[in-house]
Amino acid sequence: MANVNINRAVNDAFYRYKMPRLQSKIEGKGNGIKTVIVNMSDVAKCLARPPEYTCKYFGCELGAQTQMDDKISRYVVNGAHDAEKLQTLLDGFISRFVLCKSCQNPETELLLDKAQQIWQKCAACGAKNMVDMRHKLTTFILKNPPSSGALATTKNEHESQREASKALDGSAAPSPSKKSSKHDKADKGDKAEKGEKSDKKHKHKHKEEEDEDDGDWSVDTSADAVAARRHELNATLGESVSKLTHSEELELPEKKRINIFFNFASSSTCAAKPAAGAVARTANQIQAEAERLEIKEKAAGVLVEVCFNEAILQQIPKCSQFFVKLTDENKRAQRYVLGALEALIELYRATLLPKTSHILKAMYDNDILDEAEIIRWNDKPSTKYVSEEVSKEIHKAAATFVTWLKTADEEDDDDEDDEEEGDDDDEDESEEETPAKSNGKAPASSSSSASSSSKAPAAPAPAAAAAEDDFDIDDI
């Protein structure tokens, strides 16, 4: 990922203060959706600020809760936020808490005084400016100051001022009297004698140290020492060279970038069987490397070759976290996984072909593959990874599991349809009962309605009602 200027208002291509561009990943669904900032530690290191400050700043600006775990370098902001939006918010943090107010240089450090105020001291121009204490992040900084000396108090400055005032007071003091001068001369003589003795002791001690040092002036030239120095030099050079090559790797063809990822994954995934606590951290590193090389979809297929062999059924639960980071809600990545599985089954044909349905079910149970993608793969066979003959055998062996998936899907649809029909019948019955109750009459039974329909109709009800209405009140 290319670097950007820390002060993005500066468009100079040769601006020496750089930082990596923020990388974010959205995880979860619904109310549990959250944004993971993958390279927060690297960005904060370039800003000379703790990563907790930048993550908390995002929470304050977005009005969202944050989760910070410095041990595994995981920094999370609740909600779905894209990388460009977070990059714009980071510019605000840099303007408020990093750049010098006088010269706009990022070489600043934060200082806390006894009045619980935060100051910025610039190493370039020497200016000292107060941070805007109205921002919510200042409360977090006061409660969580860094343990390093970057946030040291101004105690040394106060001590130097006291020493300077004492020196001025001493020079302005009145001259001593004649009596005191005699005592002073005697004291000076005693001090001179003591000084000469101490100088002799110091010279003698210094001479002994020089004699001792004469024996250690040479460099250890043993084979172990030379190998250790060479290893240390190679490590230092390797770090500097890797920083230069990261940007160059993105310009390589996709095939070479896939080979780079394969070598990285082979040295850091479940092939090395890491401890349980290291699995999440290694999975995050693999995801970050795949995103850095811009091969996130195909990286999932590469992991199949790295993690699995003929004992794939025992390996899937152990390595599922590596795949979930790449295949979650990513259809293309799942298709590459299915293609790589076909190639793996062909490689260990005698062992794995009869277990195809079990392998797909294990992938499905561990959330690596979705139901829709497995059915789509079965309905549209491909000869991209294996021959047509092998493809037919694999799909035939997978028919049991795919049929079970389709049957379960149809049963779920039927249950939903039955529930909807039941709701419609209840609504119809309630509509039939409503007019009967509104007329003040009970609904007629089915038998009485049948008998009345067979008999001849009586006098029309409306006519009878009209006759009853035409009566004289005097007749009563």
TrEMBL record:
Compositionally biased spans, kind Low complexity: 169-178, 436-466
Biased composition regions of type Polar residues, renumbered to the chain: 145-154
Family, as annotated: Belongs to the eIF-2-beta/eIF-5 family.
Region of interest: Disordered: 143-219, 405-476
Composition skew (Acidic residues), residue ranges: 409-433, 467-476
Full protein name: Translation initiation factor 5
Listed GO biological process terms: formation of cytoplasmic translation initiation complex
The organism of origin for this protein: Capsaspora owczarzaki (strain ATCC 30864)
Keywords associated with the record: GTP-binding, Initiation factor, Nucleotide-binding, Protein biosynthesis
